[in-house]
Design brief:
mainly alpha; 6 helices; single chain
């Protein structure tokens, strides 16, 4: 694709960045899974990975949100939207998991923070779509802000739902 061929160094560095980010997430989940397995074995119970069993969902949420927000009109734009959306979904999950949902869940603050974080991150990703500005209905930054907000809202809503299910199963 033309856009990849014009900037191979930038795309190569982007791949390294993505590889490092995904590697760090996988390292966290690997260590966390071993802890969960050890605790379950010590208690003589089956292993339950809880919310972590749903780790692939954020990739889908981000890709879907970005497709909806950008409405790609060319294959090149569609591929880039999917890749950036999927990675944004993973970042949204990390932000929700490690930061936003450390706030009490009964508060509306986590959802508001999700919207703000999503709009901020999405606006930054909008910069990556400037070469496609002529294909977009709005400014790439606006599409990015919408996409990021949708990504974070979907990820936060799913995280809240899973956390509620987890809490309900621990109460019994």
């Amino acid at each position: 694709m033309d856009v990849l061929g014009r900037h191979p160094l930038i795309w190569g560095l982007n791949g390294v960045y993505i590889g490092i980010a995904v590697g760090l997430f996988l390292r966290y989940f690997y260590r966390d899974d071993r802890r969960i397995e050890t605790e379950a074995a010590a208690q003589g119970q089956p292993t339950d990975y809880g919310r972590d069993a749903h780790w692939l969902e954020p990739f889908f949420f981000g890709a879907l949100a970005y497709l909806v927000a950008f409405l790609p009109t060319s294959p090149a734009l569609a591929v880039i939207v999917l890749v950036i959306g999927a990675m944004s979904g993973v970042v949204a999950a990390g932000v929700s998991h490690f930061f936003i949902f450390t706030i009490p869940r009964r508060s509306a603050l986590p959802i508001l923070l999700s919207l703000l974080a999503g709009a901020g991150q999405g606006t930054l990703t909008g910069l990556l779509f400037r070469p496609f500005a002529s294909e977009l209905l709005l400014n790439p930054l606006v599409h990015g802000a919408i996409a990021g907000s949708l990504t974070y809202i979907m990820t936060a809503a799913r995280g809240r739902s899973l956390a509620s299910q987890e809490s309900a199963s621990h109460v019994r």
